[in-house]
Specification:
With 145 residues, the protein is mainly α. The protein has a single domain, classed as plastocyanin oxidoreductase (Helix Hairpins, Orthogonal Bundle). Helix content is 66%, strand content 0%. It has 5 helices and no strands.
Amino acid sequence: MLLPLMTLATFSPNLLGDPENFTPANPLVTPPHIKPEWYFLFAYAILRSIPNKLGGVLALAASVLILFLIPLLHKSKQRAMTFRPLSQFTFWALVTNLLILTWVGSQPVEHPFIIIGQLASLTYFTILLILFPFIQALENKMLNL
């Protein structure tokens, strides 16, 4: 996984970039659609899903910082998810949610995308802060039986 990413970043860094990044800047005109790079789109969708500016920035920071807390939130007695089907399902739900957030972050700020972004943002925090610890505790309890 690391080798393809290093090759991409070294030999063709603009391959996945947006063509709008190469237009000359005009300080008198606001661009019609501001879109960050593809790897920040999930956080950008969370930022846009909250109407309050400060709340959006706090949610953006929390969405990135929560990724650092995942190892601390892991309280399961088994390390691998091979024999933990509930955790597998929750993991793939999180991956799907991140893909939806990435897609919504690349879309313009219009009616259906705002609602989808708000629901996906709520689901993102619910999965990481509520479902993962609850399912791990449930699986630990099932292992003790």
